[in-house]
Amino acid sequence: MNKRKPTAPQPVADASTLEQVALRHLNRFDATVAGMRRILGAHCRRAGLGQAEARELIEALLARYSASGLLDDARYAAAAAHGQRRRGASRRAIEQKLMQRGVAPADARAAIDDADSEADDAELTAALAFARRRRLGQHRAPADRTKFRQKDLAALARAGFDIDTARRALGARDDDDESF
Q: Which residues are CB-contacts of 51 (< 8 A; sequence separation ≥ 6)?
């Protein structure tokens, strides 16, 4: 009695199959050129396609999609930066995440600057949103605020906010808490 699961058929890697894989992914998610290259490369490796042939097929598809605007790193960066800022991410965290996704540093900085243009002090606004979402500072019970002050400051620092912004987000006065 054999309890092995039947193996899935090996995927085929030709131009039309790669296009189907790419379009299926783009129908569900926005992607960067580097991200799509990684996805298509993984498909080609599973299919057992040679590196040179796979690279040629992938680059041709990526060039076509980039030229048509289907893949646009600047658009991806702008959308991601706006979304991350709304959720309370720091400038450092957004830039790091975009660069991990393969967005060029110049595009990442431009997208963050564009997202920051909507608010006077975008970093403080993001820190306040982060504190609200994580229930830090004034969003804690009044009895616990002083007890967890250092932990709240540390959470904001780990999220990429500088100490002054973190203190302002937690409602600190200038002479407050010089130990951090």
A: none
- Residues 81 and 107 sit within 8 Å (Cβ to Cβ): no
- Mean pLDDT calculated for residue range 41-61: 91
What's the pLDDT at 180? 41
Instruction: State how far the alpha carbon of 52 is from the alpha carbons of 45, 57, 153, in Å.
Output: 11, 9, 51
Each residue of 53-87: pLDDT tens digit?
999 999 999 999 999 999 999 999 999 999 999 99
Please tell me the chain's helix, strand, coil percentages from 3-state DSSP, rounded to the nearest 5. Answer: 65, 0, 35
Lookup: tokens for 21: 């894989």
Alpha carbon distance 98, 108 (integer Å): 6
What gap in Å lies between CA 99 and CA 14, rounded to an integer? 30
Inter-residue contact 61 to 31 (CB < 8 Å): no
